[in-house]
Design goal:
Two copies of one chain form a homodimer.
Chain A (H helix, E strand, L loop, with lengths): L1 H19 L6 H8 L3 H7 L3 H24 L6 H18 L7 H9 L4 H27 L9 H22 L3 H13 L1
Helix pairs in contact in A: 1-2, 4-5, 4-7, 5-7, 5-9, 6-7, 7-8, 8-9
């Protein structure tokens, strides 16, 4: 039951922070959404900052777990698997009416310059997401789908940049135009 | 003198909002930095929101004016001119110790989902920046430097996404690693 409470706080908190940002989210709002008393929150989290840091791990674990399932879909070519992964992320954004964008990207914009503890945690989170992308690219090379000459980590970095930027564009355009361009042009990068 | 005062408010305000974000910037801080009384601020700006919206135009005009000078440097090929433009932006970021990133991208993350007036203004700002990039690409096509088959606006969109994403990465990595990859791999996209 205790584990469920913590999970519920993270689940509800994740939705609020995703849309409102870290600073604009009050602990009271999280308590209300998760339907728990204040003491419960502080049982699991030392502070709002501690909550924010654990939230980053929560977001990352969710994305990596989903990425893992796409990596395993051997009925598709590795590059198609990578596109399936991005298309799942794009679909999530569409379902949210193009709000939110990347929770890690948002927190990076908001906290990257002003909180060193968050900055380090976010840098680590970005590395994990890029490592996930690199695994699709490596498989594509192993199966001869793309050139073995391509620098795997550099390419993963560029693909990640493109996707992050397309998500920012989505947030102000409120449509999937830039994400669709990213999807269609992905093979030009890889 | 009046024009100077407004310019100074925008100049000082731009620096603060760039690093702190819109919500965390208080009018008091801007008054202090620009060394003006409160009445002066409200003579030029109806509200903090009005200031924020005019600030977006201020940022855009600065970037477009600089872009124009790079477009005119006919001693370089069009793609090299585009790289020079990005390298100027990267150099600005290095000088700021990799803080700040893109002021328009930051405001998009912060306000794109919660303020419709800002969202529209930012969408328009993104369009102007992408139009600037498209002009370099069109010249490159006209001079035969790149394929005439390439969809100009789509390519500009993708290049813009990549650069925006690389700037987010810069903010958490506090180095130019992803920006350097963007610069080196730009020709793969175009």
């Amino acid at each position: 039951m205790k584990a469920d409470t913590k999970g519920r706080i993270l689940y509800e908190g994740a939705k609020i922070v995703h849309l409102m940002g870290y600073h604009k989210t009050g602990i009271q709002e999280i308590l209300r959404a998760a339907d728990i008393p204040k003491g419960s929150f502080y049982f699991y989290f030392k502070s709002k900052e501690d909550f924010g840091l654990q939230l980053i791990s929560y977001y990352i674990e969710k994305i990596l777990a989903r990425g893992e399932t796409f990596l395993e879909q051997k009925e598709f070519s590795p590059i198609q698997r990578l596109r399936n992964h991005f298309n799942w992320l794009i679909y999530q954004s569409e379902r949210q009416e193009f709000k939110g964008g990347c929770p890690i990207g948002n927190l990076s914009q908001e906290l990257g310059d002003i909180n060193e503890v968050f900055r380090e945690k976010l840098d680590e989170a970005f590395s994990k997401l890029k490592h996930l992308i690199s695994r699709f690219i490596k498989e594509a090379q192993a199966e001869g789908e793309i050139s073995a000459e391509l620098g795997v980590m550099e390419t993963a970095d560029l693909v990640f940049s493109c996707f992050q930027g397309a998500l920012i564009q989505m947030k102000v355009a409120k449509n999937a135009h830039s994400l669709d361009i990213f999807d269609r042009m992905l093979t030009r990068i890889i």
